[in-house]
Amino acid sequence: MKKRVTQRDVANLVGVSQAVVSVVLNNGSHAYPQETVARVEAAAKQLGYVPNRFAQALKTNKTLSVACIIPDITNPFYASLIRGVQSVMDEHHYDVIVASTDGLRERELHFLRWAAQGRVDAVIGTFFNAGMADFEPYLQAGIPIVRIEAGEKKTGPLPLHTLFIDNVAAAREAVDYLLRKGHQNIWMIAGTGGPQHARAKGYQQAMELAGLPPQILSHPDFTEQSGYQMAVQLFSQRERPDAIFAANDLMAIGVMRAAREKGIAIPAQLAVIGFDDIPASALVTPSLTTLAQFPEQLGMRAGSILMAPDPSAPPNQGSSTAMPWRLITRESA
């Protein structure tokens, strides 16, 4: 096996001390003349030097990596969220390790333990089950956590940061839009866990204010297939819905597939609204009316909180930040 190239090898080739090589190759190039920096970088490239991240972690007690814990890696919403996190972390030379939990508590706790094991320096995540009692040991150890939530959470003296969308208000706006369009028999289809409770609450508020009975059908999954299955069930009823509000875009797209198979015209016979504004929502036919919550912007904000905290905030203090959302009207409703 080929011997690993070390900083000492680079130093011997250039004719400088190992300390100089270490400083130059660890973003300290401003400390030495440009000629010395160029010679060190050229030698490192010639020899094929690659930094030993494990050795660096032992010296600095930093892994230069962040865990991004998400419930479903196949959902395009989370792909955009990760992209936003990665764009910020790249600027700070941090790696992002992605973990998908399937919304299961044991997997959320398993990946949280990465921080305690010294595998990551911080955590960004969407947690369907883990809560403050689970986070507290890590926060007390000084490990910052940014969580993406469905509503505002209390802040405290520990480094727990919350980014939230007002899911109740957003869902209420979607249903109000359907009501203004003259729809009466409006059903909601939802998954279980995560933001479902907040979105269902907004739907119920809008329906009750209009004097109409809330009607919600749930499935364990937030997938296109679950949306399809629930739509088939609703279409078999004697009184078919004239509008469906889906708790995410994947389920809404499943509804549209079921409607197409049944010969139900959208929006003439059925209005459909989703939630998330994933890229596919603008590409399906008809294009999907949905609630945008800008996941890439969410990810960038989460990364920025970790890498560039608010200098005016108390050190290690938690925070709660409202993020924007918007109803995007297209052809389906």
Summed up, the helix count is 12
Q: What gross morphology would you assign?
A: elongated
Return the average pLDDT rounded to an integer: 90
Distance between the termini: 63 Å
Give the fraction of residues assigned to helices.
40-55%
Q: What is the assembly state of the chains in this entry?
A: single chain
Helix-strand makeup class: alpha/beta
The overall strand count is: 12
Low-confidence stretches: none
Task: Based on the model shown, name its key terms.
single chain, 333 residues, alpha/beta, 6-stranded parallel sheet, 4-stranded parallel sheet, 12 helices, elongated
Question: What does it look like?
Answer:
By secondary structure, the protein is of the alpha/beta class. It is 43% helix and 15% strand. A 6-stranded parallel β-sheet has the order 2-1-3-4-5-11, with helices on both faces. A 4-stranded parallel β-sheet has the order 7-6-8-9, with helices on both faces.
Task: Briefly characterize the structure.
By secondary structure, the protein is of the alpha/beta class.
Please render the helix and strand layout as text:
Layout: H1 7-14, H2 18-25, H3 34-47, H4 53-60, E1 65-70, H5 76-91, E2 95-100, H6 105-116, E3 122-125, H7 132-140, E4 145-149, E5 160-164, H8 167-180, E6 186-190, H9 196-209, E7 216-218, H10 224-235, E8 243-246, H11 249-262, E9 271-273, E10 290-292, H12 295-307, E11 319-322, E12 326-328
Parallel strand pairs: 1-2, 1-3, 3-4, 4-5, 5-11, 6-7, 6-8, 8-9
Antiparallel strand pairs: 10-12
Helix pairs in contact: 1-2, 1-3, 5-12, 8-9, 10-11
